[in-house]
Amino acid sequence: MKVLGIETSCDETGVAVYDTDVGLRAHAVYSQIALHAEYGGVVPELASRDHVRKLLPLIRQTLDEAGIALDELDGVAYTAGPGLVGALLVGAAAARSLAWGLNLPAIGIHHMEGHLLAPLLEDEAAKPPFVALLVSGGHTQLVDVKSLGDYRLLGETLDDAAGEAFDKTAKLMGLPYPGGPQLAALAEVGTPGKFKFSRPMTDRPGLDFSFSGLKTQVLLAWKASDQSEQTRADIARGFEDAVVDTLAIKCERALDAAGCNTLVVAGGVGANKRLRAKLQTMAEKRGGRVAFPRPALCTDNGAMIAFAGALRLQAGEHTDLGVHVTPRWDMATLTAM
Ligand code: KG4
Ligand code: ZN
Fold first, then answer.
1. Quick check: CB of 300 below 6 Å from ligand 1?
2. Which ligand is closest in space to the CA of residue 244?
3. Domain assignment of residue 81, yes or no
4. How far apart are CA 163 and CA 178, in angstroms?
5. Quick check: CB of 32 below 6 Å from ligand 1?
6. Is 14 in the pocket of ligand 1 (CB under 6 A)?
7. Which of 59, 71, 124 lies closest to 95 in space, CA to CA?
8. Alpha-carbon distance 318 to 304, whole Å?
9. H helix count then E strand count, the chain
10. Following DSSP, what letter does each residue of 22-35 receive, concatenated?
11. pLDDT tens-place string over residues 197-231
12. What is the pTM (predicted TM-score) of this model?
């Protein structure tokens, strides 16, 4: 089965073709970062308009790269939520119309389920039961996955998401939007241990997170410092270590709570090198394993939507002819496949 996947929930237009026989045939992502940078964050209306401009050319390009004609497709999957309503509607309308025109089934996919399943896309050994750590710009969640589609929330952030904390911390030290990846790059040349920040909520039981206080700790340290390039890197390193340690401590607890030894990690912050290394070490120590998508499939992309769509279409599901999106959508309401 060859499925076209379309992702337009926020500021990336993502398109891919996933083939259940051979795997990912092609995927392309157009990032709107440059468009939003001067505003310091995503402007929803500009995001919608840019998806309108870029989606059809990107679909043509991806089909060309996959060497697949429109009439060879077997289904169309699109992100139906959560996300920005206007941005979601662009992808949903395009996907729904294309499927109607081609007489194909279409399926609306939950964006976080897309992220959650991405580690399985190129790793055949990664199968439920597992614990998923979802760490993106909008979410930080630990999910107990007993079978595909059966998602039980174990813990989540009470305030900022991990990616949001990276972005806000980068911003307050003067890095341009979105600062997460740049802060991580800066941390590479920072001195470990020069600045020590807390590991929030690890001193008590529970699987929830809180990252907003770390940002304040960084702000105070940055204001009191000489604000040199090296200090910025040292603080970045201290901040990254605090987030990574916190996530690793809670992941280990979640594995214990779920009685399982496989962790899958997804979402933009899953691209973070130090997080990947730390979780790898933690899992190996306990004789378990951790699965990550390749970094390009950690951040928003169409491949994860095509893959999740293929799984759900194969399970016999499809969405009706209407163009529906769900900007706020609890993953626990999804049905098992
Ligand atoms: O999953 P994603 O692409 O979009 C959302 O659905 O939110 O995640 C984007 C987030 C941003 O906050 C970005 O700063 C963060 O992931 N991010 C990183 C890294 N790469 C992306 N954070 C830390 N280290 C990275 N290497
Ligand atoms: Zn995302």
1. yes
2. 1
3. yes
4. 9
5. no
6. no
7. 59
8. 17
9. 10, 10
10. TEEEEEEEEE-HHH
11. 999 999 999 999 999 999 999 999 999 999 999 99
12. 0.95
Q: What is the per-residue pLDDT across 27-84, written as a single tens digit (0 to 9) for each?
A: 999 999 999 999 988 999 999 999 999 999 999 999 999 999 999 999 999 999 999 9
Q: Are residues 212 and 325 in the same domain?
A: no
Q: How far apart are CA 337 and CA 77, in angstroms?
A: 15
Ligand 2 centre to CA of 139 (Å) is 8
> Does some domain include residue 122?
no
Quote the crossing angle between the two packed helices 212-223 and 162-172, to the nearest 10°.
20
Burial track 203-217 (b if 16+ CB lie within 10 A, e otherwise)? eeeebbbebeebbeb
Number of domains comprising the chain:
2
- Are 222 and 310 in a shared domain? no
57 Cα to the center of ligand 1, angstroms = 25
Q: Is the CB of 267 under 6 A from ligand 1?
A: yes
153 and 286 belong to one structural domain: yes
Burial class (CB in 10 A: 0-12, 13-18, 19+), 59: buried
Rounded Cα–Cα distance for residues 303 and 48 (Å): 20
Which has the closest alpha carbon to 275: 87, 74, 133? Answer: 133
Task: Residue 172: give the domain boundaries.
Answer: 127-292
Q: Is residue 121 part of a domain?
A: no
